[in-house]
Design a protein that fits this description.
This protein is 33% helix and 19% strand. The protein is α/β, with parallel strands linked by helices. The chain has two domains: 63 residues; 198 residues, Vaccinia Virus protein VP39 (Rossmann fold, 3-Layer(aba) Sandwich), CATH 3.40.50. It is elongated, with a radius of gyration of 21 Å.
Length: 278
């Protein structure tokens, strides 16, 4: 913990000058400590923190300097304009994954009672974003990790999404013969030896939710091969993958007999989501 004597005072402005972390991170942490929005920090820079608020903020600053993700410190991350609880049991939702939601919604008519499957739901962010925007859809979300499943269920309670069913399952294992019009997945897709695993937030995120064999495609191969059994006629499979995996993912879809195969780019111009239909 950073000692209190290391700072000149305890106002908002003085706290934001403390700690030597990224200014965006500092503002995020201080907003969470105070329970206020960014406009409050701008409008009231002279507001004094209580001792408890100061100590909590300085503790978080020290942990952030050690590399701990901001989302795990605050316990929250925004995704698709919704606030999600996150813990070290789940991946931190990322902006590029919003593309997966967008593409799914394009294939789900507003008032249709389509069935949607979200594989390895993690925090539940994809399933909940779809369910919130398609109230008549019936969404099933699977997750093999019980701790992650509890996080997803809590997020569904927070967002009052009554059209989601959570199933403890490794991929399709507990689904029987159920079929869906749309299947989405943000599976592990990082290769075992990828140096990024030793950098940044990835060091703290659950390895089982990141790593998928020697080439990063182990889970995607399994999903592509087995999704046929759970897609209704004309149904779509959409999944996120790594920045350099799009061509190989399209080849897997083609080999498995999918049609209308394509990859879509995220806002950074990276081919991030591939799709096919049966």
């Amino acid at each position: 913990m950073v000692e209190v004597r290391e700072v000149a005072g305890t106002s908002i402005a003085e706290m934001l000058r403390t700690g030597g972390i990224d200014p965006v991170d500092a503002r995020t942490l201080l907003r969470a400590v105070l329970g206020v929005g960014d406009a409050h920090l701008v409008a009231r820079p002279g507001q004094m923190l209580t001792d408890q608020q100061r100590d909590r903020y300085l503790t978080w600053v020290a942990r952030r300097r050690a590399g701990e993700p901001v989302a795990y410190l605050t316990g929250e991350r925004e995704f698709y304009s919704l606030a999600f609880m996150v813990t070290p049991a789940v991946l931190i939702p990322r902006p590029e994954t919003e593309l997966l939601v967008e593409l799914a919604l394009q294939r789900l008519p507003q008032n249709a009672r389509f069935r949607v499957l979200d594989l390895a739901t993690g925090s539940g962010c994809v399933a909940i974003a779809i369910a919130k925007n398609r109230r008549r859809a019936q969404v099933v979300a699977t997750e093999a990790d019980r701790a992650a499943l509890e996080v997803a269920r809590e997020n569904a309670r927070r967002h009052a999404t009554g059209n989601i069913e959570f199933v403890e399952s490794n991929w399709f294992g507990a689904l029987g013969a159920r079929r869906f019009q749309v299947i989405v997945a943000n599976p592990p897709y990082v290769a075992e030896g990828d140096p990024h695993l030793a950098e940044g937030d990835l060091r703290f995120e659950p390895r089982a939710a990141l790593v998928a064999g020697a080439d990063g495609l182990e889970c995607i191969r399994d999903i592509v091969a087995r999704a046929h059994e759970h897609l209704a006629a004309g149904g779509w499979l959409l999944f996120e993958h790594g920045h350099d995996q799009a061509a190989r993912c399209r080849a897997l879809l083609e080999q498995a007999g999918y049609r209308d195969i394509a990859s879509r780019r995220d806002l950074a111009g990276i081919e991030r989501v591939s799709r096919g239909r049966v």
